[in-house]
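Milestone M4 deliverable, item 7.
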Amino acid sequence: MRDYRRETRVYKIRKYLKLGILITIVVIYLLPIYGMFNLAFRPRAEMFTGFFVITQPTLENFVEAYEYGAYSAIVNSAIITAGGVGLALALAVLASYAFSRFKVKGKNLLMFYILSTRMMPPITLIIPIFIMYYTVGLKGTYLGLILVYGMMALPLSVWMTKSFIDDVPKDIDEAAMIDGHSTMYILFKIVLPMVIPGIAASAAFAAITIWNEFLFALLLSGIDTKPTSVLLSSIRGERGFNWGRVAAIEVIYIIPIIILVFWLQKHMLRGLTFGTVRR
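Output delivered:
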């Protein structure tokens, strides 16, 4: 009886200890986000007083963000992200199906090479890309940013999409071929609809990567194509930083990604397993 009580007591202690650690981690992660939202709705006169409570919430920081060009920058980020994700997925679907279904010589080596390009530090590529873009006139254009971001998101998209296509039985392809369907018909009309969750997961991770990228955007964007990540780095008022305006732009910046993550969280979780969890 004493042993049972002791085990129960130890179990409860471990349970509450784990709960306490979990709550601590959540607070550590959420406190900066709360602070950002807090500053965004705080008037300038109360910017550094009473961190946890806002006595007079205001939208003046969002008005200043609009005047500073935040909403145009968000549109630029959306255009660049959508274009980069679309390009990466279009190429990834074709490459993934080829690697999954066809006998490609040196397949494993090629797959490793594709992924290894993602491991390369971006700063090692920025100078040759900058010179090339400046020479051909792609610097400061949407097309130039979409191309570089599409290639940046391609390696992980290929690996993730292939893992989902591998889960589709090859018997389905063979049956469709017997019926006289072409390879492209099988891919786009039969296989692709079956791996929509995988496509969604690949799109989500690619979008997060492109949306948050800063280095290429800083050096390759122009005045009219500047995304929000670059805009945030250039904010400075006549009397220093306007932290309320900065926080307002940050709130506008993270909301689309928060919505995307909540919308596709199930697909993203499966994408992290790379096909190891069977449906």
